[in-house]
C-alpha cells in the first residue's frame, strides 16, 4: 500500500491512503484531534475518577500516535498501571514510520526514540514501568481474547470508507471484550454508526467534536 505522509495544521503528521482516499486523522491537526477524542474524552475521566488499573483497546494502531499520547499520560501518572492493547492488520513499513513527527516529541524529546520502537515487529513491551503495550497484527473481528477492557479507542477509518467496521455485528463482538460500563470513544458521529452501537447494547452520547467538528461519540457498554 502506498501511504503518503501529510503534515496537518498543528504540525503533526498523518497518513493518506490513496486506495480509500482517506486520511488517518483530521487535517486540522492529527495530534490535536487525537488528544481531544481519545485522551480528553476517553482516558482522562478514568484517571480523574482515581482508577488505578486501566486496560485500553485501540482499533487501528496506524501511526502510533495514540500509543505515544497514552505513554505521556502514563508518565504523568506513575501510580496508575496502564495496559494498552492495539490492533493493526496493516502495520507501517519502517520507511513510512521514519517520516512521522508529532509536536509532543518536541516538548518531550525523551520520547523521540520510542516512535521507531513502536513500529518494530513485536507483541508485548513494557515502554514504562507502569505502561505495557500489546500489539496484535489482526483486525477486530479476528481478535477474540476475553480481555475485560475499560476503554476503547475506536479509530477505524470512517463509516463511509470502511462500513464493515461500524456494523451491529462488530459492536456486538466488541462488547463481549469489555467490562460492564466500559467506555468507547471515537471521532466519528454518523447516525447509522450510532444506531448500530445502540442496537449492540451501548448507551451512546454525543460530545463536542475535535477542532471545530460538530460531534464525536462517547458510548458506554451496558452489562451483558
Ligand atoms: C484512521 S486510521 C488509524 C488511526 C490511528 N489510531 C493513528 O493514530 O494513526 C485506521 C487504522 O485502522 C486500521 N485497520 C484497518 N482495518 C482494520 C481492522 N479490521 N481492525 C483494526 N484496524 C484496522 C488501518 O490499517 C489504519 O491503520
From TrEMBL:
One GO term (biological process): methylation
InterPro entries: MnmC-like_methylTransf, SAM-dependent_MTases_sf, tRNA_MNMC2
Keywords: Methyltransferase, Transferase
Highest taxon listed in the record's lineage: Bacteria
Keyword Phosphoprotein attached: no
Domain MnmC-like methyltransferase, chain residue ranges per copy: 147-220
GO molecular function: oxidoreductase activity, acting on the CH-NH group of donors; tRNA (5-methylaminomethyl-2-thiouridylate)(34)-methyltransferase activity
Short name of any one Pfam family annotated for the protein: Methyltransf_30
SUPFAM superfamilies found in the cross-reference section: S-adenosyl-L-methionine-dependent methyltransferases (SSF53335)
Record carries keyword Methyltransferase: yes
PANTHER family noted in UniProt: MNMC-LIKE METHYLTRANSFERASE DOMAIN-CONTAINING PROTEIN, SLL0983 PROTEIN
Protein name from the UniProt record: tRNA U34 5-methylaminomethyl-2-thiouridine-forming methyltransferase MnmC
Originating organism: Flexibacter flexilis DSM 6793
Amino acid at each position: 500500500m502506498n501511504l503518503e505522509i501529510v503534515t496537518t495544521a498543528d504540525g503533526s503528521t498523518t497518513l493518506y491512503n490513496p486506495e480509500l482516499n482517506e486520511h488517518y486523522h483530521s487535517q486540522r491537526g492529527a495530534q490535536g484531534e487525537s488528544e481531544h477524542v481519545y485522551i480528553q474524552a476517553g482516558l482522562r475521566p478514568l484517571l480523574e475518577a482515581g482508577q488505578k488499573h486501566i486496560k485500553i483497546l485501540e482499533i487501528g494502531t496506524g501511526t502510533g500516535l495514540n500509543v505515544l499520547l497514552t505513554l505521556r499520560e502514563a508518565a504523568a501518572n506513575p501510580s496508575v498501571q496502564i495496559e494498552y492493547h492495539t490492533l493493526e492488520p496493516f502495520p507501517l513499513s519502517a520507511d513510512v514510520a521514519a517520516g512521522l513527527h508529532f509536536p509532543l516529541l518536541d516538548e518531550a524529546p525523551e520520547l523521540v526514540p520510542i516512535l521507531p520502537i513502536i513500529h518494530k515487529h513485536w507483541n508485548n513491551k513494557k515502554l514504562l514501568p507502569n505502561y505495557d503495550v500489546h500489539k496484535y497484527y489482526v483486525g477486530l473481528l479476528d481478535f477474540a481474547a476475553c480481555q475485560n477492557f475499560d476503554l476503547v479507542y475506536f479509530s477505524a477509518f470512517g463509516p463511509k470508507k470502511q462500513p464493515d467496521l461500524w456494523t451491529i455485528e462488530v459492536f456486538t463482538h466488541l462488547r463481549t471484550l469489555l467490562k460492564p460500563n466500559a467506555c468507547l470513544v471515537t471521532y466519528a458521529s454518523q447516525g447509522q454508526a450510532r444506531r448500530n452501537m445502540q442496537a449492540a447494547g451501548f448507551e451512546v452520547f454525543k460530545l463536542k467534536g475535535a477542532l471545530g467538528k460538530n460531534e464525536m461519540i462517547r458510548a458506554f457498554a451496558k452489562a451483558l
